[in-house]
Amino acid sequence: MMNRNWYSNLGFGSLYLSTFLVVGFIAVILWDLIYKGAPSWNWTFFSEGPQEGMTKGGIFPVIVGTFYVTLISTIASLPLGIGTAIYLQEYAPDNLLTRLIRSSIRNLAGVPSVIFGLFGLVLFVQHMQMGTSLLASGLTLGLLTLPTVVASTEEALRNVPQSYREGALALGATQWEVIWHQVLPAASSGIWTGAMLAISRAAGETAPILFTGVTFYQRFLPQSLFHEFMAMPYHIFILSTQHHAIEIVTPIAYGTALLLLVQILILQMIAFYLRYKQTSTRR
Amino acid sequence: MSQMKLEAKGLDLFFGAKHVLKKVSIRIPDKQVTALIGPSGCGKSTLLRCFNRMHDLNPMAKLKGDVLFEGQDIHLSKAAELRQKVGMVFQKPNPFPQSIFDNVAYGLRLSQKLTKSELEYKVKAALSQAHLIDELPDLKASAMELSGGQQQRLCIARAVAVSPSVLLMDEPCSALDPISTRKVEELVLQLKSDYCVVIVTHNMQQAKRVSDLTAFMYMGELIEFSETRQLFDKASHELTRNYLEGSFG
Which of A53, A93, B29, B223 is the most exposed, having the fewest neighbouring CB atoms within 10 Å of its CB? Predict the structure, then answer.
């Protein structure tokens, strides 16, 4: 009896310890970011561009660049990904070909982002002659997030009870009407959850945009889809490793990192809320 | 003989290699309740689903033989148009996760261009036909909050709202408590003055209570089909008698 208790305590003890370690690491990272990043947050930080060799001023163009490139990637990946998922889940027959397509998409989600960057460089920048630009970067990020969008949309569609489809069909709806009127609304919170995760992933990626359009500094905001742009993940990298006066710009790097984290946190919270709403309305 | 509402002629159905319906021929008249009974897996629900082409969804299903609606081959018209005339109520209540009103209005919105007041009128008419209107103070409330029995009657209201001429019911009471079951049965008896009702049930008492005609199926075959009283009192086939006496099934 003693022995069993002892094992049980040891077991729980190690579980507590691992949880504590994980939470501890997160807390340290957060604390470090807030402690070193928050002081640089002020109005100038958000509203103005870098000044005096990036040692002063803010990160306004960086924020705008990240916003643009994320927006483009979202516009590119959401319709394509959701459409693919609808086709695979609702229309495509279950055969060798569709299973192959499905597993390829799954595997695509595991491809390192640097490979996507390389691919984007060859396809968009060089072959399609977009140059290093917002558009090329946005499309590359769109490709990167596509598998996530497809997989999460498929999952959301699979979770819609078959009885909704049958109910609508039995009332004389065509398959398209069933999908449009019943399946998509029932799956929408799941789809949006996946979309939020995809968007937050796109906003934080560095490698793909590094190959295809991000620049470490430019004086103006990008005026068209074919301009280069600044972006938060790359800005952090530049300020912390490539700058000649690292000590001076470190607070700006931390401030940027904190903003990136807050932005991702907000997107994840929206995703969390949508998931919560889904589980509370479907009973 | 007058024209039958629904008819199957030498109907065979396969799910992949599995032979589920074997040479089934049945003629179902209008304005009567026809019950399909038989042990689980005998093909009664499968047969029911042939009449509104619900097997279209299943790529494994292969159908041979003819299914006629008002004398016309049902595979010659569009499935969606057929299903507006041949409505269906399922085993488990399956309201859409929307308001009560929208549930009933869905079929109407699909097929008809109605003004707001016409739509409201028809929705309320369907709900009162299902004896549900008095129990529902707020039609904007979510259908998911209704009790199981109310949900099933809502599904019946939803089906009759588009004024079909046939109502297929697939074990509509199997998920309901006795009181809700009685309400649905009363409803079925009233509906038969306007509709051809086909009801699948594994409850023989229910078949006795609500149906005019009863078909007994076994292992994918239609064994016997006659007036309900005759089938229950003096079935001509031994399998039917054994089943009714409860010796199997």
Answer: A93
Shared domain check, A49 and A35: no
Per the structure, the complete domain to which residue A24 belongs is given by 2-40
Residue A94 has a pLDDT of 84
Residue B99 sits at φ, ψ, to 5 deg, of: -70, 160
Q: Which residues of A touch B84 (CB under 8 A)?
A: 171-172
* Closest chain B C-alpha to A186 CA, distance in angstroms: 8
Where would I find the beta strands (DSSP E) of B70-144? 72-73, 86-89
Q: What is the CATH number of domain B6-244?
A: 3.40.50.300
For residue A53, name the pLDDT band (cuts at 50, 70, 90).
Answer: confident
Q: Which residue of A has its CA nearest to B105?
A: A171
* Integer Cα distance of B53 and B69 in angstroms: 11
Task: Please determine, for residue A36, whether its predicted confidence score (pLDDT) is greater than 80.
Answer: yes
List B residues 105-134 in contact with A (Cβ-Cβ < 8 A).
Answer: 106-107, 110-111
Pairwise CA distance, residues B49 & B170, whole Å: 9
Q: Assign residue A253 the CATH number of its domain.
A: 1.10.3720.10
Same domain for A119 and A244, yes or no, is yes
> What confidence category does residue A96 fall into, taking pLDDT thresholds of 50, 70 and 90?
very high
CB contact under 8 A, A172 and B90: no
Let me know whether A22 and A108 are in one domain. no
Phi-psi domain of B86 (left: phi exceeds 0; alpha: psi -120 through 50; beta: other): beta
Mean pLDDT calculated for residue range A183-196: 91
Residues A33 and A49 in one domain: no
The helix/strand count (H/E) of chain A reads as: 12, 2
Q: Report residues of chain B scoring pLDDT below 70.
A: 1-2, 247-249
Confidence (pLDDT) at B249: 54
Number of domains in chain A: 2
Rounded CA separation B67/B197 (Å): 16
Domain shared by A127 and A12, yes or no: no
**Same domain? A134 vs A21:** no
Mean pLDDT in residue range A90-100 = 90
Task: Fill in the amino acid letter for A283.
Answer: R
**Which among B69, B96, B112, B152 is the top mutation candidate for probing chain A, defined by the most A β-carbons within 10 Å of its own β-carbon?**
B96
A166 and A190 belong to one structural domain = yes
Q: Does B172 touch chain A (CB under 8 A)?
A: no
Per-residue confidence (pLDDT) for residue A283, from 0 to 100: 42
A191 and A274 in a single domain? The answer is yes
Can you give the pTM of this predicted structure?
0.84
Tell me which residue in B57, B97, B111 faces A172 most closely, judged by beta carbons: B111
